[in-house]
Design a protein that fits this description.
Distance between the termini of chain A: 37 Å
Radius of gyration of chain B: 13 Å
Shape of chain B: globular
Low-confidence stretches of chain A: none
Radius of gyration of chain A: 14 Å
Number of helices of chain A: 0
Mean pLDDT of chain A: 90
Number of helices of chain B: 0
Strand content of chain A: over 45%
Number of strands of chain B: 11
Shape of chain A: globular
Structural class of chain A: mainly beta
Order of helices and strands of chain B: EEEEEEEEEEE
Low-confidence stretches of chain B: none
Oligomer: heterodimer
Structural class of chain B: mainly beta
Largest sheet of chain A: 6 strands, mixed
Largest sheet of chain B: 7 strands, mixed
Strand content of chain B: over 45%
Chain lengths: 114, 112
């Protein structure tokens, strides 16, 4: 079973629409969750951290469901500039104890169409 | 200063060459990371340094050798690479190991 799973898309969405992405993770001990955005041939950039209570940043809302091991990202009033790959990222405890790193999902490709 | 810098931006090397990638941050972060990213794939963790000590080596071949000379710098020494090692090499840093990571722009490496 893959550690972090996402629908790769692509999601083709008209400008102004609302779009939602989901992600599931396998390690129930994971404690930190993030959405990163990556543009073509660029580095990943943090979009937002994800908290159990849910959090919102402008047009973006992230939710975490620990019981179902499920993370979501909602984008409202989508803009052309939102076109990118969205990476679901989960903190992972590596073997040997005490060491953490991030595990990335394969990303969901979003295309906003005019 | 919230930036992670990486040099060079592009590197082309032969299989017998020795080269180094450099990463620098001045945010006071105590964890630094090397990732490898192939086209249309997510970043894959290679190494993690925490407080200048290697804390994770994700079974990376010995032709990749990391070095952390001080808390602001992270190097990746390359020797006898293979063409399949061609990829984008990303450096990241975070305040502590579980915190949000900030990525540098990467070095695009081509091995001939």
């Amino acid at each position: 079973r893959k550690e972090v799973e996402q629908d790769p898309g692509p999601f083709n969405v008209p400008e102004g629409a609302t779009v939602a992405f989901n992600c599931t993770y396998s390690n129930s001990a994971s404690q930190s969750f993030f959405w990163y955005r990556q543009d073509c041939r660029k580095e990943p950039k943090l979009l937002m951290s994800v908290y159990s209570s849910g959090n919102e940043d402008g047009r973006f809302t992230a939710q975490l469901n620990r019981a179902s091991q499920y993370i979501s990202l909602l984008i409202r009033d989508s803009k052309l500039s939102d076109s990118a790959t969205y990476l679901c990222v989960v903190n992972t405890r590596y073997s040997g104890g005490g060491a953490d790193g991030l595990t990335f999902g394969k990303g969901t490709h979003l295309i906003i169409q005019p | 200063d919230t930036e992670v810098t990486q040099t060079p931006k592009h590197l082309v090397m032969g299989m017998t060459n020795k080269k180094s990638l450099k990463c620098e941050q001045h945010m006071g972060h105590r964890a630094m990371y090397w990732y490898k990213q192939k086209a249309k794939k997510p970043p894959e963790l290679m190494f993690v340094y925490s407080y200048e000590k290697l804390s994770i080596n994700e079974s990376v071949p010995s032709r990749f050798s990391p070095e952390c000379p001080n808390s602001s710098l992270l190097n990746l020494h390359l020797h006898a690479l293979q063409p399949e090692d061609s990829a984008l090499y990303l450096c990241a840093s975070s305040p502590q190991q579980r915190d949000t990571q900030y990525f540098g722009p990467g070095t695009r490496l081509t091995v001939l």
